[in-house]
Amino acid sequence: MRINLKKEPVDPILYEINTRCWLREMSDRLGRPITLARVPDEEFVNWQRLGFTHIWLMGVWTTGPRARELALNEPATSFSRQPGSESS
Q: How far apart are CA 71 and CA 48, in angstroms?
């Protein structure tokens, strides 16, 4: 019988990342275009080494003209900042 003495976290440890910014920064750093399909394994290994058990890739969806229109014209349904809405 083998006993695993390695302590596993009781709760998941989540790292949330702005995917578009992350891919752009990584592309700049590596000097070549990086897509989700081409992220080097070392990126995920590093997060695991830091103790993260889950990665949330925020913003992984297709945007288009309708999404922009909603963000600009319907503030109740978006998080866009409208002119004059800044609080002092």
A: 35
Burial of 46 (0-12, 13-18, 19+ CB in 10 A): exposed
Find the domain containing 23 and state its range: 14-77
Calculate mean pLDDT across residues 1-22: 76
Q: What is the C-alpha to C-alpha distance for residues 72 and 47, in angstroms, rounded to an integer? A: 35
How distant, in Å, are the alpha carbons of 32, 66, 68, 70, 84 from that of 74?
37, 11, 10, 5, 15
- Per-residue model confidence as pLDDT tens digits over 41-75: 999 999 999 999 999 999 887 778 887 787 788 76
Structurally, how many domains does the chain consist of? 1
> How far is 15 from 44, CA to CA, in rounded Å?
11
User: What residue type is assigned to position 9 of the chain?
Assistant: P
Q: Is residue 82 part of a domain?
A: no
